[in-house]
Amino acid sequence: MRYSQTLIPTLKETPAEAEVVSHRLMLRAGFIRKLSAGIYSYLPLGLAAIRKVENIVREEMNRAGAQEILMPMVQPADLWIETGRYEKYGPELLRFKDRHNRESCLGPTHEEVITDIARKELHSYRDLPINLYQIQTKFRDEIRPRFGLMRGREFVMKDAYSFDVSDEAATLSYQKMYEAYKRIFSRCGLQYRAVQADSGSIGGNFSHEFMVLAETGEDTIVVCKSCEYAANMEKAVVVVEKKEQTEPLAELEKIETPGKRKVTAVCDFLKIEPTQLVKTMVFKADGVPVAVLVRGDREVEDVKLKNLLGVAEVEMADDKEVFDATGVPTGYLGPVGIKIKVVADQEVANMQNFYVGGNEKNYHLKNVNLERDCVIDGMADLRQITTSDPCPECGGKLGLTEGIEVGHIFKLGTGYSESMNATFQDKDGKDKHLVMGCYGIGVTRIVAAAIEQNNDDNGIIFPLPIAPVSVVILNLGINDAVITDAAEKLYSEFLSAGVQVLIDDRDERPGFKFKDADLLGTPFRVTVGKGFAKTGLVEVKTRKDGKVEEMTPEKALSTLQEKIVAALR
Ligand SMILES: [Zn+2]
C-alpha cells in the first residue's frame, strides 16, 4: 500500500461531533466518514481492519463446524408477523412497502429468516445438529445513534444459529460457540471477559455476553480476581451465608427520633451503625407500590427486584406516592404494620433486634425481628453487589471494571420453532420442534472497542491481529536517491515476505509523517531517515511501548517478520 495513492484523509482537528475516543480517532485517522446519523462509509484502512476481524471470526466459526451462508437484508413482514415480533420489535425495525405494496423490513437480526430456512430444509434428526452463520450488514433504527461505530444504525454483524434435536444437544452447541468466541476475542488481541448475562438459574447459565474491557465502557461489570467469574453489575449474585440467630429477641420499643429521616441522621442520633438499621424503600412495580427492605448501608438493584416481582418496570416512588400508599411521611416508613406488599433482601434475614421507621412522624422502632414482627411477601437477593462481597463461584475477591459488549450467545429453546412450526422427525418417528441457539458478534463494534481499549494521546495503538497494516515505512528523503532506494527495497521485501505494509512516500515534512504514523496505530514503524547514508541503519519503533531501536534494513525485516508471525500464531 502506498500512502500517496491510498485514500487516508487524516484530520488534524478533533471533529466536534465525536463524543468517544474510538469515534474521534476513526474520523481523524481517515477510517470512516459519516453519511447520515449512525450510517458510515468505511474507507480503505477502516475496511482493512474490519476485514481482519471478519477473517478471524470466519476461521473460528468454520473451525467450530459452523457453515457460512448469506441471507437477504430485506425481509418480508409476514415472517415477523408469524413470530409476533412485527408488533413487538418497535420503531427500531425499519419498515417499508415495496412497489407491490408488500410490507417489508430491513433485517436487524435474522431469527425469522433462518427458522424459515430450517422448517423448509431440515426434516430429520439426521440433518442435525447444524449451525449456520453469516457476516452481514444489519440495520437498527436507533433513536439516538452515537459514538460512531459503537452505536450506529447500520453495522456489520456475524450472526449464527444452531439447530438441535434436544436441549442437551443444544447445550453442546452452545458450549462449542462459547469456546469459539473465546478464541475469536483472544485472537483479536483484546482484553475481554465472558460475562454471565442472566442470574445463573439452576441447570447452568446459557446466556453470556463477551465484554471488551475499557475505561469508557457502557456497562459496569464485576470480575473475580481469582477465577473466571464475571457478571453484569445488575446480575451479579450476592452470596449471603445464613447466620444462626444467637441473640435473644428483645422487646419491641418505640423511640422518638425528631426530624431524623435519613439513615445517617438516624444513626448519628441513636449512635448506631447503618448495619443495625433496615431501610424501607417504596418502588412502583408496574405502577403498584411495593416496599423493599434492605440493610441501611445497601442499595436496591432494580433488575433483581423486577425479576423477583415478575414485572416489566420498577421505579422509585416519590414522597407523595409513598404517603398516598402508606399514610406515612418519608423517612419514617417501616415494615411493622405497613399496609402495602413487602419484600426483603436476603441479608435482612440475618439481622436481629434491628431498627426501622415507626410508620409515624418522628418515631422509629427498636428491636425489630423479621419473623416475629413483620409479614413478608418475598425474600431474595435484591441488593447491589459490592467489592467487599465474595465471588459467588470461588469466594475470591471481586473488582469492578467497565466493559463494551461485542458478543452475545444464548440458548433460544423452541420459541421460534414453535411459533413458526419448524419441526423434524426424531429417531422415534415423532415430530418435534427444533431446539435453537443464537450467537452474535458486532464486527464493526469490535474495531471501535479495540480502539477504546488501545489508544494514547497520539492516536490508535492497534493490536497486531486486527491492524489494517502491520508495518509502516517512512521515507524521509523523497528527493534523496539513497534513502528512497533503501525504503523502496525494504517495502518490496516486506511485501514478498507476506507482511502487510504501508509506505509513506508522500512529499511531506518528517514531523507530519511521524504524527500520521502514530495516529493510524500501525504496530511497527520503520523510518529511513537522513542518517541512513552515513550509518546504513534504519529506526524501528514499536507503537505499543514506544521502544526505538536502530538496525540494518535486513535485521529490521527479519526481526519484524518474526514478531508478526509470533503475534498471529
Ligand atoms: Zn471467583
Topology of this structure?
Blueprint: H1 21-28, E1 32-36, E2 39-42, H2 44-63, E3 67-68, E4 74-76, H3 77-83, H4 85-88, E5 95-97, E6 103-106, H5 111-121, E7 130-139, E8 154-164, H6 167-187, E9 192-196, E10 207-213, E11 219-224, E12 230-232, E13 253-256, H7 263-270, E14 278-285, E15 288-295, H8 302-309, E16 314-316, H9 319-326, E17 341-345, E18 354-357, E19 363-368, H10 370-373, E20 378-380, E21 398-413, H11 415-419, E22 423-425, E23 431-433, E24 435-442, H12 443-453, E25 455-456, E26 459-460, E27 471-475, H13 481-496, E28 501-504, H14 510-520, E29 524-528, H15 532-535, E30 538-542, E31 548-551, H16 553-568
Parallel strand pairs: 3-7, 15-17, 17-20, 27-28, 27-29
Antiparallel strand pairs: 1-2, 4-6, 5-6, 7-8, 8-24, 9-10, 10-21, 11-12, 11-21, 13-19, 14-15, 14-16, 18-19, 21-24, 22-23, 25-26, 29-30, 30-31
How many structural domains? 3
**What is the 3D form?**
globular
CATH topology of the largest domain: BirA Bifunctional Protein, domain 2
Average of per-residue pLDDT values: 94
Radius of gyration: 30 Å
Number of alpha- plus pi-helical segments:
16
SS strand fraction: 25-35%
Estimated structural class: alpha+beta
Q: Please outline the major beta sheet.
A: 9 strands, mixed
End-to-end span in angstroms? 24 Å
Ligand inventory: zinc ion
- The CATH superfamily of the largest domain turns out to be Bira Bifunctional Protein, Domain 2
CATH class of the largest domain: Alpha Beta
Sequence stretches where pLDDT stays below 50 over 5 or more residues? 199-203
Q: How many beta strands in the DSSP annotation?
A: 31
Helix share of residues?
25-40%
- What is the name of the CATH architecture of the largest domain? 2-Layer Sandwich
